Amino acid sequence: MANQIAVVGAGVMGEAFIAALIxxxxxxxxxTAVVRRPERGDELKAKYExxxxxxxxxxxxxxxxxxxxxxxxxxxxxxxxxxHLRSDALVISLLAGKTIxxxxxxxxxxxxxxxxxxxxxTLIGKGxxxxxxxxxxxxxxxxxxxxxxAATGKAVEIPEDLQNALTGTSGSGPxxxxxxxxxxxxxxxxxxxxxEDATTLTIQTIVGAAALLDESGDNPTRLREKVTSLKxxxxxxxxxxxxxxxxxxxxxxxxxxxRRAGELAQ
Length: 266
What we know:
Elements: E1 5-8, H1 12-23, E2 31-34, H2 38-48, E3 51-52, H3 55-60, E4 64-67, H4 74-81, E5 90-93, H5 100-106, E6 113-117, E7 127-133, H6 139-150, E8 153-157, H7 163-171, H8 173-190, H9 195-216, H10 220-227, H11 233-243, H12 246-263
Parallel strand pairs: 1-2, 1-4, 2-3, 4-5, 5-6, 7-8
Antiparallel strand pairs: 6-7
Helix pairs in contact: 7-12, 8-9
């Protein structure tokens, strides 16, 4: 579908999507990045062989415009985008909290907008994204989005009113996981293991458990039950989690993330 694609804001996630575009079959020569720092442009051009242009020059020729800037910078940037945006261009937003209606209003009521919430494993092609589409997105544009997101990992289409819940689940989810790994490593060190060994043991345990969950066909409850012997060591550990209210703690954390995502829309 797309002949030319502009990536506005090529930080960590923007670069991840540049790589995904190329993996999905888009020619590097069809991709243009808009960056603040010339040295960043030189880096991307050398690494991916894409073009670097000023915002107005990139927009006027682009069928797809991917917004990878920080959410706080959107309001300031939209007046600069609107005059140069093609009326039939697909705008893909990666900005947490920013609504389709808000983006549309800021872009002179542009009608072709996709709201995408990716997460950091996108950087290695193992991401999880949720996307919502405006009514003006065509079938061809939707197919392009699906192909692109398949190159980032997995994706699901959801109603936009669930986007904040998705942010609290998969968008912020990797950070929950990393924090748990930190806690396990610290716990191992407290019991006498070296930090190096504790890190190796914890990471491989988590990686193996995730692969088992993904590949076994069993749900997490069943896998937990299989490894938990009555009155055994694992049961003792899980009892501590339950006494601390782990389900409530996790639910509160996810709700806090979703609430903050909603505040970013303001």
